[in-house]
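Exam revision sheet. Question 4 asks you to relate a sequence to its structure. Input first:
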Amino acid sequence: MLFSTPFFLFIFLPVFFALYWFLPKRRWMLLLGSLFFYGWGEPIFLLVVLASALLDWLLGRRIAQRRPGARGWVALGVVANLGLLVYAKYTVFAVLNINAIGAMQGWRAWPVPHIALPLGVSFIVFEKITYVVDLYRKVAPPARSFLDYLNYVFLFPKLLAGPIVKYHDIAPQLARPSPQFSEIKEGLLRFIFGLGKKVLIADSLAPVVDQVFSLPPGALNPGTAWLGLACFTLQIFFDFSGYSDMAIGMARMLGFRLMENFRDPYLAESVTDFWRRWHISLSTWIKEYVYIPLGGNRVSTARAYANLCLCFILTGLWHGAAWNFVIWGSLHGVALVCERAFWLRLSAALPRFVRVGVTFGGVAVAWVFFRCDTFGRALQFLRALVGGTAAEANEVFLRPDTILVLLVGALLVLKPIVGFSAQPIVDRKWQLPGLAWAFLLLVLCLGRISVNSFQPFLYFRF
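Answer key, structure tokens:
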């Protein structure tokens, strides 16, 4: 069940919120609604996640007692959760690569299993790991009840694509959710704004992106390639940040405050700054649970650089089980190493717009590896960007309204102080859109949903 589908908007959302706001036992209502939401399309995986959550809960009680052997219980919890993620997401990738190596050696190929990927498994597993680790670190109390822990795991606004939430950040809210009228209003406006980013901008750019990136390598010319890349650069931002706005808005209506996941990332002055602004919950998680345990900045410079690269290789793999994602993550890791080594110092003398332009260009070009299906296809696309093909101009279908969306999207990204900004509500210098504007935006979104084919959120496959 996805946020921009008619069933969710017209049936699930009004029915659930009516029951949640006006009936007692809100915690139970929240759990039942969240379980129904997740199990709507994946009932088998619902049982798997429930069993995994029960293991976390039992291990958490052992860890919280601080008896000898607690470290072993933590290790069991981490391995069990990572095992679920690795099996579901990386088994096929591993078998395919083993078979590729084996083919060169004349070995018999292993059968490739057919494993369905549970929705939101990457987000769910990372949250569950934080629970057992933070209990051991004494930065989080154990869940008061299994009900509270299940609500933490299955809280439906952030269930499928984040933001990644730590248990101790939301535990007091889980104990007694109490939505206020002002929060319901702000949450609803935030949800509508996110729906507009997804439906009106990201989905309008999706056909152009799909058309360009599906062209044969020999048919790409520089103009077409740059058009497709520009559209994807905006599409992925408005798609994912739109989901985050919708998730934060719905959580607000339930009485929960989730962390912000985006802060104008395309205005970053460096790649380091970019990862402070893009998918903030993931970069924070990688820093706290991978980079710092590896030694952080307390180790030698060479080892710190190696740890940075490792963290971003893992970040790439987290996004997808394919070598192009590994390359995408590695590019960001190398960029961070270069910035620490010399670029941040050298670029300090440059005007801000130059630093932003260089960063934006580098991030956009790296998106090629993220969007292309294979590493070879990404290299061919990069070749087209620099004029390495002799293809003639392609007739990519670009409607006038798509051009308008492209311009509006670019304006919202680069000029966040006007109109509906890319970060509208958190910073108090921006005013909430008026109810009339919100209603108009909602009508436009519903109109588009009713006449256009459904476009899933990009990050749901991660």
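Marking note for examiners. DSSP finds 17 helices and no strands in the chain.
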